Amino acid sequence: MILAFALVTRRVALSDLMHTEERYNIYVGDERKFSHLTEEEYFSLMEDLAIEYYETGSPHPKKIRTEILRNY
């Protein structure tokens, strides 16, 4: 009985983790440029920033920081 309870508890915990949606903030230097992005928006924007860097040399990747927001 205890083993069955432990398995159900573990499944519920894993299910909760899978349904947790993360959001992202992107900073360039100390300035927050983009807020509360979905994962799709985040990856699209990071691709745009990479293209911009290779075309213009700015913003430098070392100046870009991501903040991950969980359970906001």
Short account of what is shown:
The chain is of the alpha+beta class and 72 residues long. The chain is built from two helices and three strands, in the order αββαβ.
Characterization of the model:
The chain has a domain of about 50 residues. It contains two helices and three strands; from the N terminus they run H-E-E-H-E. With about 70 residues, the protein is an alpha+beta fold.
Keywords:
72 residues, alpha+beta, 49% helix, disordered N terminus
Q: Percent of residues in beta strands?
A: 25-35%
**Main β-sheet description:** 3 strands, antiparallel
The percentage helix is: 40-55%
Strand order of the largest sheet: 2-1-3
Give the topology string: H per helix, E per strand: HEEHE
Can you count the beta strands?
3
| Uncertain residue segments | 3-9
Structural class: alpha+beta
Q: What is the average per-residue confidence, as pLDDT, rounded to a whole number?
A: 83
What is the count of helical runs? Answer: 2
**Rg calculated over all Cα atoms:** 18 Å
Dominant shape: globular
Query: Roughly how many Å apart are the termini?
Result: 36 Å
